[in-house]
Fold this protein.
Amino acid sequence: MRASFLACPIDLLTMAETVELARSAIRSRRRLQHVALNVAKFVNMRSDPVLAADVANSDIVGIDGMGILWGARALGLPATSRVAGVDLLVELLAVCAQEGFKPYFLGATPAVLQQAMQRARERHPSLVFAGWHDGYFKPEQENDVVRDIQSSAADCLFIGMPTPRKERFLAAHRDDLGVPFIMGVGGAFDVLAGTVRRAPDRIQRLGLEWLYRIYQEPRRMWRRYAATNALFAGILAQALVKQAVHHTLRGPGTVPPGPRRIGG
């Protein structure tokens, strides 16, 4: 079920529904691109047209951050749960191991990438990778990377490169890669490798993962989260005030329009 959240498309899906859509795409070899939407990405979309186009053109826009989930609920959308990108990656690797699908990892440093794949194989001994490449290739090497992905016959591609580099890569090559399921995973390779720890479950439920990231990497993360969280809070507050005024003017008992269902 697709809805509009502050002029941004989001899909109101559970983890199980998202995994099943990915599995179906791989089985049918029909391309499906997933993007995980969090507060930072939502805010950056407003000043980055390439990023905004990548989100708008994606087949699934999953609710990755608690801020997006709470904001959607506050505006009356029936969002039931978030689908965190790193959790979806873990679930899909299990599906790959069970059904013989072969993933391709693109991104991170060579060391982190090798450690992430090793950890994945330890968890799923039957898992076979179609291929891998670190994210630190030069522009003149890009076509070689694309050819490697094409020749790998991968069933799914997980990209751990920063925004907007990932979006520009996909905008240029998405139609030529020949991979059914494509997903950006942000810093999930670092989590999988164990070089970055996820926040405890309690902190995740409170929506304070960003604070935990600042605790781990204060110099790199403080400015990013302070800026994007403040901007998001302002955007959401304006929308809530506008909605309240509109509802008051229309009178009590008015039912706001619900999300529209899309095919596919």
Notes: DSSP finds twelve helices and eight strands in the chain. The radius of gyration is 19 Å. The longest helix spans residues 218-250. The first strand starts at residue 2 and ends at 5.
